[in-house]
Design goal:
The chain is globular and about 50 Å long. By secondary structure, it is mainly α. Helices cover 73% and strands 0% of the residues. The longest helix has 22 residues, at 11-32. It is built from 6 helices and no strands. The protein has helices spanning 4-7, 11-32, 38-58, 72-92, 96-117, 124-130. The chain has one domain.
Length: 133
């Protein structure tokens, strides 16, 4: 394992990757922790900021498809932004169950599934985790 490929990548890729890793850690804390209290709310807002940063920076990452060419993973990012907005709207209306489902969906789709694609051969995170550098 070596961070060299990530540290050699463009800044937008670095911000995207480190925000995603932070969101993954914070998301696990949120999912495992006590819900509804002040800590959950504050950590939740931090997670929303991190996930928004992950989704928005993905728009600047089009290296594999050429500048301005987006893949289905960019569609996941659009879905993340939509679900985050919906989850906030739902909790503000008091719909805890649907808020939790939306946030869990963002965690699974936006971090676990999309993150899994970053481990495919030829991708930077594959080199970070499995590369010999």
């Amino acid at each position: 394992m070596s961070l060299t490929p990530l540290l050699a990548a463009p800044a937008v890729v670095q911000v995207h990757a480190f925000a995603a890793l932070a969101a993954l850690g914070l998301g696990v804390v949120q999912l495992a922790g006590v819900k509804g209290g002040t800590a959950h709310r504050w950590l939740g807002w931090g997670w929303v900021v991190l996930m928004s940063l992950v989704a928005l920076t993905s728009a600047g990452i089009t290296v594999r498809n050429g500048p301005g060419h987006y893949s289905f993973i960019h569609g996941i990012s659009a879905g993340v932004m939509l679900l985050l907005t919906l989850a906030i709207w739902r909790i503000r209306r008091g719909d805890i169950r649907r808020h939790a489902r939306a946030m869990t969906g963002v965690f699974i789709g936006g971090l676990i599934i999309a993150g899994g694609f970053t481990l495919l051969p030829g991708r930077i995170m594959h080199e970070v985790i499995f590369g010999l550098g």
